[in-house]
Here is the input.
Amino acid sequence: MDWDEKLPTELHKQWLEFRNNLTKVNCLQISRHIFKGEVPANIQLHIFTDAPEKAYGPAAYLRSTLQNGQIIVRLLCAKSRVAPLKRLPLPRLELCAAVVGAELATRIKNDLQIRNYQTFFWCDSQIVISWINSPSSKFHTFVANRVSNIHQLTATSQWRHVISEHNPADILSRGLAPHKLQSSSMWFYGPMLLHGREELWPSKPSSALKFETLIDLERKKETPVSTLSVVEGIANPGEFIYSIRHNNSFGRLQRILSINKSSALASLAPYIDNTGIIRVGGRLDAASLSYDAKHPMLLPYNDPIVKLIIEQVHKKYMHCGPQSLLANMRQRYWPIKGKLIARSVVQHCVRCTKVRPRFYEQLIGNLPATRVQPGRPFLTTGVDFCGPFWIHYRIQSKKPHKAYIAVYCCFTTKAVHLEVVSDLTTDAFIGSLKRFIVRRGHCKNLFCDNATNFVGASNQLLELADSIQTSKAQEKIINECNERGITFKFIPPRAPHFGGLWEAAVKSAKHLLIRSTKTTSLTYEELETLVLEVEVILNSRPLTPLSSNPNDLSALTPGHFLIGEPLTAMADAKAQSGNINLVTRWKLVSRLKLDFWERWKTEYLTELQCRHKWKAANPNIKEYTLVIIKEDNVPTLKWPLGRISKVYKGDEVLFAWLMLKWFQEL
Here is the structure.
């Protein structure tokens, strides 16, 4: 209808009737005091809910018992809501009304602040009562959420069933004309059952529900769980397996064999024996095998019972592999697509997965700026320890003691600095750091392994985790570095690949030291001399592959950035200082340094493009994922389980490192 059009006669008549009835609202009289000015001995709150198709809501009544035994029931408040435009089933609307009733009761308790009074909830829908008396997890989302809210606000014992004739909330939801509302005693004074004794009230809803179909529609479908304990004690499990019902897999298999003779199973020449079991005909009648081995039972593919049988055989034969599992199965059964299902069972076996775990690998990240930008040697450095090495004394009565080597590695030039450390204490490490700074200059950033990288790696390095990697020692080292303007950083726990550069330097240093010392007894001076010689050799290694062309320049080494040539190079006897002034010489030295850095960019830096491991990008691992945590020197079956508690992102889209929470297996 347009705005200027007149109403039809029928609608105009209804509007006039509604407007005339509104004037009668002024005639309504409601008592201001519910208890007639007296103090009641007992107070009860009763909430009635109802929901026809157009509206729903609750009505709240206070039932008080005076000192003389008189019972007074009065309307306290009511609340109504319009039904949603999308039509809902009536039981769902009744459930919405119950939720509003529970919320209204909670608000009344908070506003009135009356203690020690009972609360009753009345509903004329037996389906809603049944939902409220059931766990919310059994239903779908709509019903489950509202039942859960009701359980939080009320107790299931408070809900009772009332017939529609005694439900005053029916007036609220269906509506009533003003002239009829004034004379409605049930609306203002409640139903008659509240004026009687409590013993006559209905306590529980009828158990014989007429709407079981509606209840079942709201319930989640339960997945049956199959077990094999029944089959194990039966003499002939084949007859039992074929007799049970599980998705009619065996029945379909029988129909395929009886109707379609050109089936893919025709090569097995299957037949049905006297007991109704499908067996493989085969070609082994003349073999000296048992009847079950010559004619094994044919089992369908992807059936839960068949999977249980294969899992039982897999555990029986000590978690054998797929081939062995299939061979043992075919002694009695012939599963269709046996290789596929045997491989699937082995892959989903928890114990087999723990024995041969697949490590999670992510695409290796880009190199940090400190690795690919020119800078003074040892400006950014990584430090690690190796050892122990035994130091002997010339005095026979004095016992030898352990010594360690601190390995400092430059991020840019891969230059190595070695320092002998007499013991594993914080002071000894700080002393080696001071000697390093005196010889190589101040560094800007100093990286070190985290304590957990030492745990389990070697019993000899446990002392390092106890004496240097403790919180107090770390605080002392960081304070010492801060005084010198050095930023001391620890790499993430259990992530030694973050320090792969200095780990490789440690490996090379140990390679030369172990092969040089063998079983030789060295004094402190001899060990320090050997360590310095190893340092010279490490700093004379070529940074790039050597060329076979004799006309090419000599290979670039870390020594070029330290002294201008390899540390192992022989001195040039023909070199003369000449009459070159200082400015010219400074320009020559500067030009020589620039040539080294140009070669570093063109020869060395381009060799870092390739990824030698972790070449494929995998999906990012998510938080709260259950994982197996690798432990060094521990059998795989004893590796602990953990859960990802937090994920840290790197500069790229891929995640950089994770935080784990350990928990012991039950």
